[in-house]
Amino acid sequence: MTTFFLLCFSLIVLSAQDKPTDYLSADFHKERRAKARSLMPPNSVAVFFSNAERNRSNDVDYIYHQDPDFYYLTGYKEPNAVLVLFSEDHKTAEGKVYNEIIYVQEKNRRAEQWNGKRLGVEGTKEQLGFEMVFNGSEFQKSNIDFEGFDKILFFDFKNDYRDTRNNADLFDLIKTFKIKIDYPSDYNATRQQIYSMITSTEIENSANVAQTLGRYLNYYEDLKSDNLLAGYVDAKDNDKRKEIQDKVSLEMKSNNLNSFLLAEIMNSLRETKTAEEMVLLKKAVEISAVGQLEVMKAMRPNMSETEIQGIHEYVYKKYGAEYEGYPSIVGGGNNGCILHYIENNKQKVGNELVLMDLGAEYHGYTADVTRTIPANGKFTKEQKLIYDIVYNAQEAGIKASVVGAPFQAPNEAASEVVAEGLVELGLISSPSEIKTYFPHGTSHYLGLDVHDKGTYGPFQENTVITVEPGIYIPEGSNCDKKWWGIAVRIEDDILITKNGPINLSGMAPRTTQDIEKTMAMPSVLDSFTLPGLD
Predict the structure, then answer these.
(1) Residue 37 in 3-state DSSP?
(2) How far apart are CA 23 and CA 524, in angstroms?
């Protein structure tokens, strides 16, 4: 009997060792929930839903990916779940104090046989540290008094979920929530956000707000019929705007729904990274940089864009990265001029530049690293001239990425270098024409999303951003043909610290000299050949 129990214990230990152990801890998620509650208004409740399952084809779904906010706060990776946070403590009928509840997928032996194990109620308690855990089917019977809260915080619904005939799927959970909060059929989240802008603005600044709202109304056709918004925009003086502001305030008090404040809370929380997050994010970045390094060694002119993509993604898998953070971009020659080119179906990259924008996702955290290299290992004169402008622009952008600097600082610094370089080469006649060949900004936040959440305010310590200037000269451009088809983007992941910016992806060579030197090195794939196909 003793031998039997030892064998069982050994099997359990071996099974546990088969899975990664470096996920975010339950304590991390618990602390993040506490931080979120501290930012909620008094007497409020916040409701988060898991991501929808999405169909790929017939009876095959896309690989499930949890909503990043939901994962950030819970660590729960399954669909059909609801998280409820309360700004203050509550008590059960038995006197138990609680300030959060999570509803999860129910254990189901048959479903688990097909689609994998579920945590269920007990697993969620044991592994994720929740105390108040219920099956999703119990959400409908919950006695949460939503009418008693001053504010109900939620993200408005994208309506991209299906009814799977499961009475506790996301469709029914959201349907139940809408009934419980008396969700208006004509609710418009954008309108509510604009209403908030109007009521929170000092009347002395109302003219500026009215000007901004005018642009909103031109963009959102469904808001043009709102008499309060139209009246505010058309008002001739502050007295009239104050009158409309009071009416808007009354309209907002007609219900306790708020679909924009939660975004502000999560933007603030996720902008800066904790030490535990940085372990995972650095690993994602390092894996992505190794991918670029190995592709530089393996690159040959007879390779296809798809093959190049495959080498990158093999490196990701080799290191245990579960996914790509976004569709991989591998553009040879003129294809590199398409900013989000994802077809990757060119059969031979030849002697052209190859722009490779890829990022590994490791335990939820996503890198974003771009390198542009000559497929034959040597830059032409024209390619090098363009590349060096982009490199110098990136150096200026990284240098500008310091604590307290405005979010646009890297873009402004890089744009100045690009404009000067393009004028010097005669590609543009004035810096004002820079958008012709440099159509995007340089930076976005990085984290659980490749374009992560943040406030876009002055840079804070422990924020991670990208710096990615680029020059793109598509065929047919109004310039000498010798420049046509040249596309260069260099992108690195930058940690902003009190001691200055740190390039987390610097392992991947960036200068033309280092790239050429690396591409002359042997690759472990040099002897890797496959049989031909009929």
Answers:
(1) helix
(2) 31
Three-state DSSP class for residue 421: helix
Distance CA 120, CA 104 (A): 6
**Count of beta carbons in the 10 Å neighbourhood of residue 63:** 8
Q: pTM of the predicted model, to two decimals?
A: 0.92
Listed in sequence order, the residues at least 6 apart from 505 whose beta carbon sits closer than 8 Å to its beta carbon are 285, 286, 288, 289, 367, 369, 492, 493
**Pairing of β 492-497 and β 500-503:** antiparallel
Listed residue (80, 108, 111, 262) closest to 173, CA to CA = 80
Q: Which two tokens stand for residue 297?
A: 């060694």
Say if residues 354 and 317 touch (Cβ distance below 8 Å). Answer: no
386 neighbors 485 (Cβ within 8 angstroms): no
**Confidence at residue 356, expressed as pLDDT on a 0 to 100 scale:** 98
Chain centre to alpha carbon of residue 246: 37
Two tokens, residue 340: 């989000």
Cβ–Cβ under 8 Å, residues 466 and 472 = no
Residues of the chain below pLDDT 50: 1, 4-16
pLDDT at 10: 47
Q: Rg of the Cα trace of the chain?
A: 27
188 vs 255: CA distance, rounded Å:
13
According to the model, what pLDDT value does residue 17 have? 58
Token digits of residue 159: 């309506």
CB 393 within 8 A of CB 469: yes
The angle formed by the CA atoms of residues 120, 126 and 130, to the nearest 5 degrees, is 80
In angstroms, what CA-CA distances link 164 with 82, 140, 153, 169, 332? 17, 17, 26, 7, 42
Q: Which amino acid is at 466?
A: T
Q: Residue 125: helix, strand or coil by DSSP?
A: helix
Beta carbons within 10 angstroms of residue 51's beta carbon: 22
User: In angstroms, what CA-CA distances link 251 with 99, 239, 255?
Assistant: 30, 19, 8
CB 321, CB 287: distance < 8 Å: yes
Instruction: Extract the runs of DSSP E, i.e. beta strands, from 150-265.
Output: 151-154, 257-258
- Predicted local distance difference test score (pLDDT) of residue 9: 47
Measured CA to CA, the distance from residue 437 to residue 153 in angstroms comes to 42
Structural tokens at position 280: 């995972």
Residue 318 CA: distances (Å) to CA of 311, 315, 321: 10, 5, 8
Q: Which of 505, 474, 470, 503 has its CA nearest to residue 489?
A: 470
Do residues 466 and 491 touch, judged by C-beta distance below 8 A? yes
